[in-house]
Design brief:
The chain is of the alpha/beta class. It is built from 29 helices and 30 strands.
Length: 980
Amino acid sequence: MALEGVLVEAVVGAVADTAVSEGGGILSLAFSKFALWMDLNGNHQDLMWEATKLWELRDGIRGEISSYRMTPQITQWMSQVEGMLTEVTGLDNKYNDRKNHPWKLYRRLRGASLSRDMAGKSKQVHGLWEEGKHIKAMLRLPMPVVGIRPAKIKYNSTLHKYVEDAVSFLEDPDIRRIGIWGIVGTGKTTIMEHLNHHENVKNMFDIVISVAIGKEWSEIGFQQQILDRLGLNLGSADINKNAQIIFEELEKKKCLILLDDVCCTIELEKIIGVHDLQTCKVVLATRDLAICKDMDVDDEIEVKKLSDVEALDMFMEKAGEYIKNFPRAVQVAQLVVKECGGLPLLIEKLAKTFKGMGGNIQRWTDGRRKLQDLMNEEGMGAVHQVLQFCYDSLDSNPKKDCFLYCALYSEKCEILVSCLLECWRMEGFTHNDGHEILGHLINVSLLETSGNKKNVKMNKVLREMALKISHERENSKILAMPCEGLKEPPNPKKWTQANRISLLDNELQNLPEKLDCGNLCTLLLQRNKNLIFIPNFFFASMCCLRVLDLHGTGIKSLPSSLCTLIDLRGLYLNSCTHLVGLPTDIVALKKLEVLDIRGTKLSFCQIRTLTWLKFLRISLSNFGMESQTQNQTGNVSGFVSLEEFIIDIDSSHQQGYRIANIIRKELATLEKLTSLKFWFPTVRCLYLFLMTNKAWKDFFDRTSPAWEDFSFRFQFAVGSQNLTCYQILESFDDPSYNSLKFINGKGVNDLIRKVLAKTHAFGLINHVGASSLSEFDMENIKGLFVCLIEGCNEIETIIDGTGKTESVLEILQHLHIKNASKLESIWKGPVLAGSLTRLRTIVLLKCRVLTKIFSDGMIQQLCKLEHLRVEECDEIEEIIMKSENSELESNQLRRLKTLTLLNLPKLTSIWAHDSLEWASLERIEISICPMLKKLPFNINNAPKLRCINCQQEWWEALEWSNDGIKQRLNPLCAFTSSSG
């Protein structure tokens, strides 16, 4: 061994002598090889680490997708990974051979080239890993839960108990199939909707699939609904093939299937192979107990009618407490409730209808008599009679027309409010009162609203009634077959008498060549993605058509008969990604008001003759990338009637800056423009627009606050940005909000201050030159509902209240702060009464030096805070700091519903005591908080807590002042993996 050491020294010395004699280049080469040999072990470790990451990523992708999702890109990547595995294994074998060779000299002399090969291969492996990460991010895997969050049901009510009973059955490993049954109107659908969104259910299953069956169901349609939910557009007419696809997709997942409105026995084994899916459970809702028996349910839940006392209590709650002051009203209510037969559906609708009559007792009495006269049927007929009464109680034909129009959409559809209001207006039902009518329909429970209030939907029983009324009512006849998996259109004879037709969200591949549709006013064909061709004479007879929605179809062009639609008001072509052509006589559409061509391949030149448009929605790419761009944009000023102009930025458009500046000049000439969505590349570009458009300049010069001045609507993005992030405050995108997104700005600009004073939703992105939001002036941020601070590495606090005498951010509802590397606190200085009193959401993400969330006096103002999320804030030790909140009353944070704490390495306390009531807390999630040893709960507080999401090893290590507390909370735990 000593001899080997001498030989190595001799070789190294000889190399050095030769290098010196032959010049510095050889010396450099010699020592670089020596360095490679010295780093052999490090390069091997790097290679194996990168390889391990790659194998894990490959296995993860394999586990997440079935063969039916395997695209050519993924297949090629998988093949490259397998080849790389062979090459890495070869290098690893060489390394081990040399490592185990008995001669050190041999190992050292041969190590340099191997070290170099491993370093190069490590880079290649990392490149493949990066590509795989991109592929995984692009996988369109289904969300665990979808659908509008249902209306709340009263805690401890009868319906609430039914939901909790169903959840307890699902938690039982021996129960795989549950039947929920009862007569119409008892609340079965409401129970199913709450199961779909229940926190415990979401934690039990990888995916929840909700399917509405109905009377007109088909096996193929049922399968297609499941395939659509799984994001697989592979359904065929072969039931067995479809069942195999569904089985293979679900066999590796824990799945819950919710089947609502089951009207006959369904052979689930045949349709989806459910018996072979050991981790799959099924809940079905039906009116018929025999169906539960036939489908072999393991347990049943009978949904019974409400008792007389429960029914009256529900009526009083829905109608409003004020009626208790009118004894005669209470007497009428008791009689009305008897007509409802204990059915919650009817009680709710009638209560809201009578509430709409106000305190006029005579109207209540007359209404009750009319209701009694109608009630001459039983069962479903009686239900429809009661709902008919609610419909008849609408005090104007426009309200009735608007209500019936909603039946065009499936009960499963989320109807976008802005689109619905627009259709009502184009049909002539409304003028400036659309919002008022919508609000009334919601208030009387004829429509249901979603949580964010951007969507509404119609209950299925109400929809059945609306369709029945439409067939009996003159000029309101509806042919509605949405979401039914249709591949062929209905028989042309069915089109003839219809005033409105809805075939949206189907699988249509063709349309009739000729039709007789002289009465048709609305035609909804959107999202039939397989529809690529429209026959030439398809529109020829539709002389009265006002609304035509083709968005999301696969069409490449439109036929010349489109130009015969001389009464057309609205044409929706957005997201027709293959659409390249319009008829040359498009100018014939003289009454067209609304046109949406976003996401198409149409050129602006093709629509520039439609200068009478009032609402135009377009993408920047529609202006083209050719040399004639100047000529195309030069025609924007010709649209002199435009009231709304929306321009979306395409991520692929490379000439965005230049085109945006050209369009900006044209915008200044549009005198009727009162609503604008646009991206201004620079603050100067925005300044020039305002300086050349007097109306918009006057709007921003006015001192009236944002919540009082509704004369103009805007969604502005200002500053250079990554074009893939062009949407404006996406999560809170609401047409009623004025929004400003200021990106990559510097300092505090006077013009931005002006715009901010009229803004409801503000995003400050990658900003420098400001240490707090207060520097934009307190008066200018008073009107904010939403505030997003992201990537602002010089922000130290959000609000500096030092020396202030007035409350701040009185109407702010959502505050999101992300990647603020120098943020130390949300609030600095005294918190004046009235500040933050409407704040509902606080999100803090990657604020690395933040130490204080709730400053002294701040928590007392947060009387409406519902959601708190703190993630990757390394220095947070206490959520509620004892030093800042020494005297908290027990009812503080009384509205808080969710608390999420993720990856907080120094967190030791949520609150040092168990003195808070946590009256509304429903869910907490805690992950990777190793120093947190206690929870702020006792035997009695947090009465509504239903889910604790955490890791089991962390839970078991917690310290408790009383074993009874752990016993109480333990059933609420939903354990996650250690990785969080």
